[in-house]
Each structure stands twice: as C-alpha cells, then as structure tokens.
Design a protein that fits this description.
single chain, 2 domains
Length: about 350
Amino acid sequence: MFSYLIRRALTLLLVLLGLAILIFIIARIVPGDPARIALGPLATAEQVAEMRQEMGLDDSFFMQLWSYLSGLAQGDLGKSLLTSRPVMDDILGALPATFELVLFTIILQVVISIPLGVIAAIYRNTWVDNLLRIVSLIGVVTPGFVLAIILQLVAAYYLGFLPVTGRLEGSIDFSADITGLLLIDGTLMGRFDVILDAMRHLILPALALAAAGIGQVMRITRTAMIEVSSRDFVEASRAYGIPERVVTFRYMLRVASVAPLTILGLEFASLIGNAFIVEFVFSWPGIASYGVRTILQKDLNAVIGVVLVSGVFFVVANLTIDMLLGLLDPRHRLRAERDS
C-alpha cells in the first residue's frame, strides 16, 4: 500500500507539472498585452516597452517558460499587476478564507447528505424516499450562484440574524494570525464572540456551495445502501439477531460509504472552482473572489497562481481519498498491494 501511495504521489506531481505548463501556455496566447493593461491606456510606448522588459515578455517563449518553472520551484509566482505584491503573498492571505468556507461546506455535506441518504434507503419507495429524492434533485439542478442570490434575499428580508456579506463583522476587533481560520483561531484564543459571528457568516455561502453536493451524495448513498442491503453478510447478520441499527450503521454503511466518500473527495477539490461566483456574491475575501478580479484585469501571474492552487487541491484530495478508501475497504488496499 505504501509503495502504491508513493507511485500515486509521483504521478500527481507530474499532473501538477503538466498543469503548470498548460496554464502558462494558455496565459501567453490570450489576446492583450499584460504590460499595457498594467500601465493603463495613457502610458507611452516607452513605458510599455520598459514594463515588458521588466516582466520578461520580450524573451523567447522557452526562456519565459524556464524562468517561470524555476521561480515556481522556489515558490515564486511573480508579481501581481492588480495589487503590486508577490502573488504568493496574495494567495496565502486569501487562501485561509476559502479553505475555511470549503471545509465548512464539506462538513455540511457529510452531516446532511449521508444520514438523509441512509433514511431514504431505509424507507425506500415510500413518501419519505420520494420527498428526499425531490429535494436532492432540486439541489443538484440549481446553480450555486442562483441559490446564493435566493439565500441572500431570504436572509435580508426574513432572517436578519444571518449576514449576507463578508466574513466577520467590522465591529469585532480580531486578527486570525495563527492559522488564518477564524473558527480555529477564535477557539484557540477563547474568543467565542468571533466563533459565533464567523459561523453566522459561513452559513449562507456554505449552503449555496453545499446544495449540489448534498443532493448528489444523498442519491449515491441511497443507491449504495440499497445495493448493500441484499448482500449475504447483511442477511446473515440479521439472521444472527443483530439489532437492525447495528446492521445498518456499522456493517452496511461502512461498505456503502466507499462511493459517497469518493464523490466527497472530488467535491472537496472542485469546491474551489465552484466558489468563484459564490464568493463574489457574498463578498467573501477568499482566493476565488481574488481569482475573479485577476481574470478581469488579465493579471497573468495571479491567474496562473490561482489555477495552480486549485490543481493542488485536486491532487491532495485524490491522494487523501486513496488513503481513506484503503482504510475503509480492504479490497481497495489489497488491489493496490497486488498492483504494486
């Protein structure tokens, strides 16, 4: 299993390298002069030429690629045209807000979707099952940004205790200097007012992001539980008089959780991309809203950095899911050992 994970990690590193080269090529062939965009329409030709020289845009394509990859290996993503700061500093400043939102969203998906999927399987083909299937379908087909706007309107008119923008009230004096995550830093520093206010700000954007995943994972959990319920070991457990709740939650759910866990891992990785519009709607100061601004300004270095961070999320999520599947499902672990 260990050798399999090492090979998977090396493969995923090659995927990141390929992604870095691909996004660099795409950024260079997009119409528009980054130097002209950085200086504005009133800049003279001499100023634009000086900026192009400073940014290395006059070098050959392969020299630019080599310089970019060399800097990337040292953690240097270049300078942002939008903020005039190193891109890495901008990303490290915005990433904790997005990571906290994504982590809270995944927790919501697990807490809501899996129990509802199990309930739908237990009461399959009844009105409970039909109602939950309708709810899951609505969640899957509703775009996140549409749900975000609807939640904002409902909260603004009827739920005044839920904030519709921002991450923390301006009246609260607090700086998350330990991890950058308000909930964790607030807990470590004993600031329960920060924890409560941060959770109030998290609820609406997290619900908007989680809705599609909740519906999808709920449907997959239901299908997996129904399929596992006909297995021989389930019938044998019931024949031995083991309580139904033990059979359901200890034996059936462990086997049936493989498919939902895989989907949740992919959801965790894709939430960075899905958060772009949701963060923009809720004025959430995360990396996704930062990415929207850099795209609109054609800030190539920042765009490349944001895409690479999204790629790292995918890689880490896939590797983590492989490890968890090996722990939950012995067949996956044995297959990995046989392949290695």
